[in-house]
Design brief:
It is a single chain. The chain has 158 residues and is α+β, with helices and mostly antiparallel strands. It folds into two domains: 31 residues; 116 residues, Jelly Rolls. Strands 6-5-8-3-2-1-9 form a seven-stranded mixed β-sheet. The chain has a two-stranded antiparallel sheet with strand order 4-7. A two-stranded antiparallel ribbon has the order 10-11.
Length: 158
C-alpha cells in the first residue's frame, strides 16, 4: 500500500513540474525584468524594463497582479511612433507616451484583453505602463517630466 502512495505522489509531482515547465516555456518564467529607478513629479519608482523586442512583445502579458507603484518602462533605441494593445493582459493599465527628453505627451487608459490599439500621437522613445488611473491619482499629466537615468550595457545605452 505504501508503495502505491509513493508512486502516486511521484506521478502528481511529475505532472506539477511538467505543467510549470510548460508555462515557463510558453509564458516566461514569471520573474521580473531588470528594474530601473525613475522619478515622476517627485515620486520615486522602480519600474521593470522592456528593452529587447521580445520584452516589448511580452510586456505585462499573463501577469495577474501589479502593485500600486509598479509598472513597466518600454525603452526604444530612437524616437518612433509607438502602438500598444492589451492582448493577454488581464490588468487594466494606463500608458504614458514619453519623449526622449522625458516629457509626457499623452496618457491613455487601456482595457484588459482589448485588441484596440493605443498609438502615440508623436514620435516617442519611451512608454510607461502603470495600473489604470495611477497617473490621475498622482496628479501626473501631459507636459510633466519623467526622470529616467541612463544605464550602460555592452557599450550602448541601457
Amino acid at each position: 500500500m505504501r508503495k502505491k502512495w509513493i508512486i502516486f505522489f511521484i506521478a502528481v509531482l511529475s505532472i506539477h513540474i511538467g505543467y510549470n515547465n510548460f508555462n515557463m516555456v510558453c509564458y516566461g518564467n514569471g520573474s521580473k525584468n531588470k528594474v530601473l529607478p525613475i522619478s515622476i513629479g517627485g515620486i520615486e519608482l522602480e519600474v521593470e524594463l522592456a528593452i529587447t523586442p521580445e520584452e516589448h512583445t511580452r510586456g505585462l502579458m499573463h501577469r495577474t497582479t501589479l502593485k500600486n507603484n509598479e509598472g513597466m518602462l518600454f525603452i526604444f533605441p530612437k524616437e518612433t511612433v509607438l502602438s500598444f494593445w492589451m492582448k493577454n493582459t488581464s490588468i487594466p493599465l494606463s500608458i504614458a507616451f514619453i519623449k526622449a527628453d522625458g516629457r509626457i505627451i499623452q496618457i491613455e487608459s487601456m482595457k484588459p484583453y482589448s485588441l484596440d490599439t493605443h498609438i502615440s500621437k508623436e514620435k516617442v522613445m519611451y512608454a510607461l505602463e502603470m495600473k489604470d488611473g495611477w497617473f490621475k491619482t498622482h496628479n501626473v499629466g501631459e507636459g510633466d517630466r519623467v526622470k529616467i537615468p541612463t544605464m550602460r550595457r555592452a557599450g550602448s545605452e541601457y
